[in-house]
From TrEMBL:
Protein name per Swiss-Prot or TrEMBL: Uncharacterized protein
Keywords associated with the record: Membrane, Transmembrane, Transmembrane helix
Domain of life: Bacteria
Residues spanning the membrane: 21-48, 60-80
Length: 89
């Protein structure tokens, strides 16, 4: 199993190791950004009456950024899967 710490070391990495790292990073970013997106949707819409206006505004801004990160992470994931000859889904 390849570890992310090896990515930052001085030793040369093979292309497949780099794409394995990209896949791991993209999956992690996808999970985190999707969680933030769900949290901001809950704060901004169904439970908005429980939060102050400033927090709702921050939630709307965070919603835009987290949705963008979801899309970027998904594209990186697709690229890594394609280069590793895995099924892209």
């Amino acid at each position: 199993m390849f570890h992310v710490a090896q990515f930052f070391s001085n030793e040369k990495l093979s292309a497949s190791d780099k794409f394995e790292t990209l896949l791991l990073s993209a999956n992690t970013l996808l999970a985190l950004s999707f969680s933030v997106l769900l949290a901001t949707v809950v704060v901004c819409y169904p439970l908005s009456y429980m939060f102050p206006f400033e927090l709702q505004m921050a939630g709307h801004v965070a919603m835009i950024f987290s949705a963008t990160l979801v899309k970027i992470a998904y594209v990186c994931r697709c690229i890594a899967q394609h280069e590793l000859h895995k099924e892209v889904r």
